[in-house]
Amino acid sequence: MKTINRIITLFVLVAGIVACEQTDETSFVLQEVSAPTKVNAVFDIANDDTGTVSVTPTAEGASSFEVYFGDVTDETPTTVSPGETISHVYVEGEYTLRVVAIGATGLTSELSRVVTISFTPPTELAIAVAVSTTNPFMVTVTPTAENATVYDVYFGDEEDGAEPTTIMDGESAEHTYAEIGDYTIRVVARGAGAATIEATETVSIAGATDPIVLPIDFESATINYAFESFGNAGAGVIDNPDASGVNTSAKVGQLVKPEGAEVWAGTFLTLGAPIDLTQSTTFKVSVWSPKSGATVRLKLENATNPDVFAELDAVTTTANAWENLVFDFGGIDTTTELQKVVLFFDFGTAGDGTEYYFDDVSQVTATVALPQLPLDFEAGLAYEWVGFGAADFGPIPAAVISNPDMSGSNTSANVVEITKTAGAQVWAGASLQLEGAIDFTSGTTALVKVWSPRAGTPILFKIEDTSSTPDNNGNPSVFVEVTATTTTAMAWEELAFDLTSAAAFDTNISYDRVILFPDFGSAGSDEDFYFDDIMLGTGGGNTGGTAEPMMAAPTPNEDAASVISLFSDAYTDVTVDTWRTDWSQADFEDVMVAGNATKKYSNLSFVGIETVANQIDVTGMTHFRTDVWTADATEIRVKLVDFGADGGFDGGDDTEHEIVIANPTQNEWISLDIPLSDFTGLTSKSNIAQLIYSGNPTGASTLFLDNIYFYSAAAASTEPTAAAPTPTVASANVISLYSDAYTDVTVDTWRTDWSQADFEDVMVAGNATKKYSNLNFVGIETIANQIDATSMTHFYLDVWTADATEIRIKLVDFGADGGFDGGDDTEHEIVIANPAQNQWLSLDIPLSDFTGLTNRDKISQLILSGNPSGAMTLYVDNIYFHN
Questions:
Q1: Has residue 15 been placed in a domain?
Q2: pLDDT attached to residue 315
């Protein structure tokens, strides 16, 4: 059975292509089940001697609230929806107001406030105002008064008619001013009666006054970062627009070089004291430039004499990403008093409206040399990997870290980690600048140790000559690219990239940058890849991948009575005129794959499959299904053509539509299960006469096809009529909790006493199945027999639901002490959003997707939950770990 993560991915991808909109590449939405947070209540009281109050509860993650007003014994709470305001009438007195926020899983958080109801006018109003010690623009106002229920606070910078900030007695109000100045804070104290009392207090906002010191990181709200710009440039402190890569800080400096700005335009900051050059004469500046190859000049200048200075240039090596530039002023007289820090961006070029960012201006101990092949990431060199290609086209994380899997062929201490974040571009990767050109005397094959979460993953290795003329995207125009494919999952292997296989490769070219593209050709799904020991040799390693499938396509399980099959061993096929028309551009073979008849198309540009003599009426069908395997296609297109009522080609009533599968997974079977409603141009479906496959690279790709048929999805029902699919993973590679196909480990309970769900053992088509109804959440425990899944790569279960709109799956490991809440527990939850209903879903989830589950040797709990909370039913079968 094809896994649900791949089916949903392809469905979403197909729908997105048809609608010409960007879609997510994965159906997993990661989220933790937790109680609501930031519980609060907007409280007000009517000044009409009635004692009427209004309460608007708020919280993050709350689906409803219960409000206890505290003025009766054994009170029944009032249920409130998010955003709803309720009213209540108190008599005079003091009460405890309680707001209970309830999350979708039933977990709760609570807020309590003392409410004073008095019809006596408020008296003795006092105002305490405190200016923050960390943010000189922020004040905290704390009013007190006798007989006051609420306070209206006006901070003195509001527009006329603006609403005040209303707080309850005993609370404080915070406010941040935009500018320095003196402000009059006015507070009005109110009780239940019409009478009020008010007072004022003046606060002086002096703003940032502390002097600038090295290092300059722009994070302090008390330092006055007073930029002085020249040459028509502009500068200031802003929020970091690209908090990633080597700079994730909150604040940075910005320099704008507008159209027509001088070639020498720049800005400077004056430090509070001269730089102590005896500490170091080497400086580092983090910079972000939209241009690679832009000159950045750092100038250090005397506070009063501009003729006393030192300056150096550095050149940016990447575009649209942070990098660290180093300026070594070695040989300078360390007694020179230099107090101004001056920066010029794209020095020597007139302004064109470009924005540049900079941060972390600091003294460093020494210039760190750039690395060169071989790269083992153990030496103290500047391994400054620059990621690129995130979903928003910014950088993805890439850095040298401790080896997370010191085993097999790689037990070294350090490796480089590249995270292909969710939604990252198909070409996302990371680059490393080298110290000069690569020397090929030791060989022309690049050998790289790779750790991938999945087998069959393409890795693209690229080298560039950064001195070559930039292309239209600003990247070097001289480069070489070679691809190899991983053959194992969650283990180290060495891949070989034969550089001579690229026609453009020339050992005389000065290649000085290495780039790695993990899972090239597929959008990111938040996976980590690790690389190490990048070196040159004469061969060895593994080029990865196979040219043809080793396993047969999955066996379909649709009811034969609901199927019209063109080609499948599982059904009786209709007559097909030809599996390759004479106008096709492809080679065709009937082949056997693991004993299963399969269609093979090679050198494929496009191929037509016709049923003109036996046109197919699929008006009663809902889906088109085809299983596809490819080692090289980067795009697959599937077109259906209906010849219309006249039954003839091009008779004026033909209709057709093509579905595009971009970046299909390679080296494994993909089940394309496409709703016929997605073929929006196919307005008639009673005379299907052609099926056309095509793709990219045109004329150079190979497709293996099986199980080509139309079917009608079963009518919705409240329970499954067919058993879950039988697993096919070898028992030696499985740890089973529940499956007729394997020997199960001992499970303590299939419903803990803290669960909120009804549980039954039922039979579905003669197959034992677990049923959970009225499900909020259910805990399944193996505490007495904790599971060691460290050698496993996936968690699998089959689920069936008629009503769930969301399914959540959490794994909990109790840690080394084996006990709950012992301080070393780890857990993670996967969310299946909008699962398909009324059919079995095979969820085959990589354990690497459970990113919070950092331990896997004492798995003690499996928790199932979802929505609608308390009103959904799940049938569950075949629960196991496997590799």
A1: no
A2: 86
